[in-house]
């Protein structure tokens, strides 16, 4: 009797293993949730919706974008971590979530290496350095000259940890001192820029392009290494001021820890196919993005390298990390 029971259990286990294997091979068999840690209409949300369409076509399943804004994307991150690691809940995370928050926050409720499985990078965009239309600063050399003549008198808007560290890097590289003015969101920054209540801001291309094109503000430089078609004539810092600053906001696809490696491989391959789509690239370019393609291992390494770079910068600049 005991032998029969053992044989029965063995058969059951084998059947279950076969069923799991078949499920992995047929994945996905139902819609996938794609979490975004920011409100609808922002750069990451825009990228997520473009990606969802193309990746869904490749996988043959609908991908539903769900905004879980709050606490610098911690709300979305925690929902991902708590979800079942079956490939049906993913997150489009930024380097703010994966590489900068771990540096800036000692009480972060997640650990990137422990809680996330990297699938691959998706796209990136630079900050655009902008000033009010009526400002005496007409280009980046003007900004440097003004900051050198008037240390700490230039008020620079800062929204989030990425802005904080980018401004610190800019101060260090250009040997200037400015005053950071902390804002909770881009809307208030734009309002103060147009009204000439703030001197300088670093904002996403999709936010500033309409304002620049309508003549409400001026764009004087980009923090990345390449120019943007949507802002023709606005050049990278290295070209306009010989300032060695190269910062981009990037987004990458992650799954919760424990996700089956076969599913990760399938998602990574599908992501690679989605990112070569001309339609996807054109849509992302309209929001100032350029596509980045890499493997899960390269994406993991990218996160580690950038985290170490930001940690060193925060330490050297004595920037508070809470």
Describe it:
There is one protein chain. The protein is α/β, with parallel strands linked by helices. It has two domains: 15-124 and 249-316, D-Maltodextrin-Binding Protein, domain 2; 128-240, Periplasmic binding protein-like II (D-Maltodextrin-Binding Protein, domain 2). The protein is 48% helix and 19% strand. The protein is built from 13 helices and eleven strands. The strands form two sheets. The protein has a six-stranded mixed sheet with strand order 2-1-3-10-4-11, with helices on both faces. It has a five-stranded mixed sheet with strand order 7-6-8-5-9. Strand 6, helix 7 (160-174) and strand 7 form a beta-alpha-beta unit. The longest helix has 25 residues, at 2-26. The chain starts with a helix and ends in a 6-residue tail after the last helix.
List the helices and strands and how they pair.
Layout: H1 2-26, E1 32-36, H2 43-59, E2 63-67, H3 74-82, E3 89-94, H4 95-104, H5 112-115, E4 116-126, E5 128-132, H6 140-149, E6 155-158, H7 160-174, E7 179-182, H8 186-194, E8 200-203, H9 205-213, E9 217-222, H10 237-240, E10 248-256, H11 261-275, H12 278-285, E11 290-291, H13 296-316
Helix pairs in contact: 2-11, 2-12, 4-13
List the defining traits of the structure above.
single chain, 322 residues, D-Maltodextrin-Binding Protein, domain 2, 2 domains, 13 helices, 11 strands, 48% helix, 19% strand
């Amino acid at each position: 009797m005991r032998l029969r029971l053992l044989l029965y259990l063995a058969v059951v286990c084998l059947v279950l293993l076969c069923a799991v294997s078949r499920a992995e091979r047929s994945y996905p068999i139902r819609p996938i949730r794609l979490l975004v840690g920011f409100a609808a209409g922002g750069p990451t949300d825009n990228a997520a919706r473009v990606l969802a369409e193309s990746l869904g076509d490749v996988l043959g399943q609908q991908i539903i974008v769900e905004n879980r804004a709050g606490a610098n994307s911690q709300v979305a991150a925690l929902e991902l971590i708590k979800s079942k690691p079956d490939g049906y809940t993913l997150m489009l995370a930024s380097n703010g979530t994966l590489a900068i928050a771990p540096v800036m926050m000692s009480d972060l409720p997640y650990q990137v290496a422990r809680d996330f499985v990297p699938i691959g990078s998706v796209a990136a965009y630079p900050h655009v350095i902008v000033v009010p239309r009526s400002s005496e600063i007409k280009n980046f050399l003007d900004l440097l000259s003004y900051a050198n003549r008037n240390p700490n008198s230039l008020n620079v808007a800062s929204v989030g940890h990425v802005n904080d560290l980018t401004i610190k890097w800019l101060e260090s590289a250009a040997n200037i001192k400015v005053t950071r003015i902390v804002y909770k969101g881009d809307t208030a920054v734009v309002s103060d820029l147009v009204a000439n209540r703030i001197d300088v801001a670093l904002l996403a291309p999709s936010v500033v392009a309409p304002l620049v094109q309508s003549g409400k503000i001026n764009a004087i430089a980009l923090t990345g290494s390449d120019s943007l078609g949507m802002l023709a004539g606005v050049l990278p810092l290295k070209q306009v001021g010989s300032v060695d600053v190269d910062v981009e906001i990037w987004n990458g696809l992650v799954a919760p820890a424990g996700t089956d490696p076969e599913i990760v491989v399938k998602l990574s391959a599908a992501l690679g196919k989605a990112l070569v789509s001309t339609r996807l690239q054109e849509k992302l370019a309209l929001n100032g993005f350029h596509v980045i393609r890499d493997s899960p291992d390269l994406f993991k390494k990218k996160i580690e390298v950038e985290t170490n770079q930001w940690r060193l910068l925060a330490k050297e600049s004595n920037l508070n990390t809470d």
